[in-house]
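User: Round two. Same drill as before: sequence, then structure, for each protein.

Assistant: Same drill it is. First protein:
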Amino acid sequence: MSETMNIALAEVLAGNRVETENILRALEMIRGSIGFDGGAVYQIELSGRFYLAEKQQSAEAAADRCGAPPKFKTESAAWLAQQAVVSVGRSGHNARRETELLDLFGADALVAAPVTDENGEPHELVVFFDRNAEKLPPETAVRLPLLLMTRYLSSRVYQSKLWRARRSLESVLDNTGIDIYVNDFNTHDILYVNESMAAPYGGKEQFLGKKCWQILFPGQNGPCDFCPQEKIADEDGNPTRVYTWDYQRPFDGAWFRVFSAAFQWEDGRMAHVVSSADITDNKQKEALIQYMANYDALTDLPNRRMLLSEGEARISQAQPPEKLYLMFFDIDGFKAINDAYGHDAGDAFLVQLSRFFTEIPLLQEAIYRNGGDEFVALIAGEAITKENIRNLSNFIHLRFNKPWVLTEGQAFCNTSIGVACYPEDGESVEELLHIADLAMYQAKKSGPGHVCFGSELKTK
C-alpha cells in the first residue's frame, strides 16, 4: 500500500467516533490496494461465535463462492487473538487452523488482524480474502493499514463495553426492588430515573426533562417544603451525609423509606439522589402491632394502655379552669349473663354495650375498655361540669333499665359509676383511676344504678 494511500486511509479513519460508512470505505481501500477480492469485519461474542458486522467484496468473488460467511465459530479464535497479523495462503505449509480459516472463506489467500481490548481479549476481527494464492501480499504491505483499521475499531470496542456496562448497571438498578431518581441539586431537573420508580407514573419518558415536583406532585409550582436538601449538604454546597425519612405516596397510600444524598454528577454539577424502598407491608404490620397493643380485640375500643397514655397527654395539655372527668363503669349482673347464656353471649353483650357508649356524643373518642366488664371514659373541656356528668350518668342508667336483647334471650343488668375529677381528685391518670374505682365501689354499695363522685367519697 503506497504512502499516499496510507495517508488517505488515516484521514478516513480519523476521530474517535466509529461510523459504518468509514469502515466500508477503509475495507474497500485496503482491499483494492492489495488486490484482494473482499474484506470484512466480524464481532466476537462471549460464546466464541463470529458475527459479520461489515463487508466489502467484488461481485466476482461473491459469484465464485469466495466471501465472508455471515457467522462462524472456530477453534482458532484464541490463536487469532494472539496474532498481530495473520497472513496465510494455500501454497504455504499451513497448520490445521490456517487451513480451517481458508476453507471458511473459500479463499486461497487470507490476511487477518484481531481487535483486542486493554486486557488482550479479542472483540473484533478484520479479514481480507482472495481466491488466488499468488496474490498473498507481504506482511509489510498490510501491517500499517491493518494497524490503522484495528485502532479505529478499538474505539467501537470501548464504546460497546461502555454501553454494556451501562446497560448492566441500569439492569441492576432496575431490579434492586428500590426506586431511584436523580435530580439537579439547584434546578431540580430530573437527570435519571430507574424503571421501578418510573412505572407508577407512566414510564421513564414522563420524568426526563422535568422538575421532580412536576411529576411527583402535579400542580405544584416549586420545591417541596419537606425537601431534605439542606440536610445533605453544608453551607458551601459540599455533600455531608445520607438523610433517611419516611414518606407516604398520596395517590395510593403506599409507604416508602427514603434515602437522600448529595453527590457529584458525571458532568461535575451537584446532584441529589433519592432512593426509596417500599415499606408499606412493614407500616401495615407496625400499625397492626400498635392496634393490638392499644385496642381491645373484642370491642375495638382503646384499652387500658391507651387510656393511661392519652389520659396523661390530656392532663399535660389541660389549662385552668379546664377540668378532666374520669368515669369508671362496672357492670352489675354481668356474671349472671355468662352463667345463664354462656361466655359467647357475654362477649356479645360487651360488644353491644361498647357500641351504645360510642354512640353517645360526649363519649365518642372518649370511652375505653379497662378490662373484663369495666369501662372508663375521659371527658374534658371548660364547659364540662359536674352536673353534665350526673346527667350523662342518669341517661346511661335509663338505658340499663331496659333489657339487652341477645341471640340467646334478654339480659337485665345495671352499672355502678364512680367519677374522679382532675385536678381535685388527683394529678395523674393512675390517681384518678384509684379514686374513681373507690367511688364506683361506694356506688355499688348504694345499690344498682348509682353514681358516686370522688368529692362525695371524701366526705363519707
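Second protein:
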Amino acid sequence: MVALSPLAERLGSAVSAAVEQVRATPRRLLVRDAVLASLVLAVGLVPVPVLLLPAAHIGWVIALACWAASLVPACWRWPVATLLATAPVFAGPNFWAAAVLPVITFAAARRIAPARRLWLAVLATAVADFALTLAFDLSSAGGFGEVVAAYAVSAMLLLVLPAAVGAILGHRRPRVRLLQERNEYLERAQLLTAAKARVEERGHIAGEMHDMLGHRLSLISIHAGALELSAAKNAPELSSQAELLRTTASSALTELREILGVLRGAEESDLGPDDRIGTRPDVEELVAESRAAGIDVDLRWTGADLDSADPRTRRAVHRVVREGLTNVHKHASSARTGVEIGVESDRVHVRVVNGPAQAGGRLPGTRSGLVGLDERIALLGGSFHSGPTPEGGFLVAAAIPTRPAGTDRAEPSALPDQLPPEPLAAEALTWPRVLGAGCLGLLALLPVIIGLAVLVVALAIS
C-alpha cells in the first residue's frame, strides 16, 4: 500500500491537470470534439445492428468503439499518448472502429514535433500493435507468416501512411507561420526606415527655413519697429500702418517657428504662447487688426468658446479667419465684411463673407492659400467651400469637427499598426498548395475507403 502511494499521487495530479486543461478549452472546440467523437462512436457501433455477432464479440465491439471515440478529443491535447493508445483498436476485432484510425493518427501526427519524436512514437505503436495482433490472431487464424503479412499491410495503411501525411502537413504549418512573421517584420522595418527618412528630411527642411526665412523675417520686424518709431515722430498718420507692419512681421515669425515645430515633430501640447490660438479672444484680435487696417468687419460668435476643443480644430479656425481677412485686404479692402463662427457640440462652422469690391480695388491672386486650407480641413474630416456670392462678394466657409479622428501627420511609431495582419496569407495559400495539401489529406482516408470496399465485397460474396 505504501509503494502504491506515489503512483496514486501522480495519477491524481495527471487527472487534475487533464480536467483543468479541458476547462480551459474554448466551448467551440469542446463542441467539435463531441461531434467528432459521436461520429466515430456511430461508425464503430455499425456491426452491432448489421452483423450477427456472438455475444462475446458484441462486448468487444462496443468497448473498442467507445475507446476509439475517446481518442478523438485526446489526439489534440496528448498526441503521443493517443498514438500509443490506438493499439487495442488496431488489433481488436472491430474493423469499423479500426477504419477511423487513419484519421486519428493523421490528427495526432500533425501535432508531434520534432520528427524524431514522431517516428519513435510510431515505432512504439507498431510494436504494440504487432504484439496485440499476435495475441489476438495466433489463437484463431492460420500460420505465423499469414498473420505477419496481414499486419504489415494494415500497419502501412492504418499507421505509417497517415503518420507520414500528418508529419508533412504538421511541419509545413510552423514554417508558413515563420515566413509570415519574417515578412511582417521586414514590412515593419521598411515602414520605420521610411518614417525615419521622412523625419530627417523634415528636420533638414526646417533647418533651411529657419536659417533663411527666419533671418529675413527678423530683419523685417526690426526695421518695421524702427519705421514705427520714426513715423510716430515725423508722420503720425502712418504710425498705425507701421505698427501693423511690425505686428504682422512678428506674427509671421511666430507662425514660422510653429511650422518648424510641426516639421520637427513637436507635440501640439507644447505650443507655448500659441495655446490660445483659435479661441474667441484670438479671433477678436484678428478682427481688431483688420479694423485697425481700415477694413469694415464685424464678428458674430455663437456658442461656447473653443478653449477645450482639439488644438488642430482651433488652429484650423484661426487659419480660415486669417485667410479670409487676408483675401479681403488684397481684393476688397473697401467692402463690408462679416466673420461668423458657430460652435456646436461636434462641429465648428466658420464663415468669412464680404460684399462686392469697388472697381479697380482687386489685386491678382493665386488661390494657393485657399487650396492649402481645403487640404488642411479635409485631413481633419471637415468640409471647405470658397467662391463668389450672388451679390458679387466672396465667401470662405468651413465646417470643422471639434474632435477630429487620427492625427494631421503620420507619427513613425504608429506606422507599423497599418500593416495587414497576415502579410503572407495570400501567398501561402495559393491554389497549387491548397490542392497539394488536399491530396495529402486524402491519402489518410485511402485506407478507410479500401477497407470499406473490401468489407462490402466480402458481405456480398457471403
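The two ends are 55 Å apart (CA to CA).

User: Perfect.
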